[in-house]
Amino acid sequence: MNPLNNPTDVLSWTNQDPRESQLFNSWGIQYRFSTVVSPNGQSTTTLWRTVRANKEDRVAKLEWAANGGLGRAVIGKNAVPMSDMVRPDPRYQGARIFNAPDGLTYRWRPSSTSPDVLLEDGGGTVVALFRPTRPTRYQIGDVYGELHFYRNAGTATIMHPPIMDTVTVTAMLYRFCKAFGL
């Protein structure tokens, strides 16, 4: 399946470390991950979504474990272990599953034909993907990948903010797990 993509459905992703990165398109920065370390050594990553010029909403707060591993995610009023958002799927090598706000289970898994990491809905339809790219310099920052959303695939809800936000958080956690062998 090769859904037609509107160019705004592709977000360029800066930085090799996804905990301190930005996702942008021709409209500007859409999401921003910002990580701070408190005086006691606690690392917290906040995901911000741009809602209009000079206005961001906090989407999620990720509180990392003391050893730098997966900790707790607070999305809206819900707190969940980060590990629940990237549960290994024993059916596929390197795959991770999560439950989204729509009640469905989604799966990030490596493509068998490319370096892409595919996001499949419960029916196996590819609704998004992360594509690693050769580092490319932009004014916003160096881009290391692209997050593609297939607007009309599956139940066609991938672009709805609660789903899109969760996909962005889980894509970051997937990249983090791959980078650090978790």
Brief overview:
With 182 residues, this protein is mostly beta strands. It has helices at 82-85, 161-180; strands at 10-14, 21-25, 28-37, 43-52, 55-63, 72-75, 78-81, 87-88, 96-99, 105-110, 117-120, 126-137, 142-149.
What does the model show?
The chain is mostly beta strands and 182 residues long. 13% of the residues lie in helices and 46% in strands. It has helices spanning 82-85, 161-180; strands spanning 10-14, 21-25, 28-37, 43-52, 55-63, 72-75, 78-81, 87-88, 96-99, 105-110, 117-120, 126-137, 142-149. Strands 7-6-5-4-3-2-1-13-12-11-10-9-8 form a 13-stranded antiparallel sheet. A hairpin with a 5-residue loop joins strand 11 (117-120) and strand 12.
Structural class: mainly beta
Strand order across the largest sheet: 7-6-5-4-3-2-1-13-12-11-10-9-8
Overall strand count: 13
Count up the helices: 2
Residues in helices, as a percent range = 10-25%
Q: Report low-confidence residues grouped into runs of 5 or more.
A: 1-8
The CA-CA distance between the termini, in Å, is 31 Å
Judging from the principal axes of the Cα atoms, what is the shape? Answer: globular
Taken in chain order, the helices and strands follow as EEEEEEEHEEEEEEH
Mean pLDDT: 90
Q: Biggest sheet: strands, sense, closure?
A: 13 strands, antiparallel
Helices and strands in order, then pairings?
Elements: E1 10-14, E2 21-25, E3 28-37, E4 43-52, E5 55-63, E6 72-75, E7 78-81, H1 82-85, E8 87-88, E9 96-99, E10 105-110, E11 117-120, E12 126-137, E13 142-149, H2 161-180
Antiparallel strand pairs: 1-2, 1-13, 2-3, 3-4, 4-5, 5-6, 6-7, 8-9, 9-10, 10-11, 11-12, 12-13
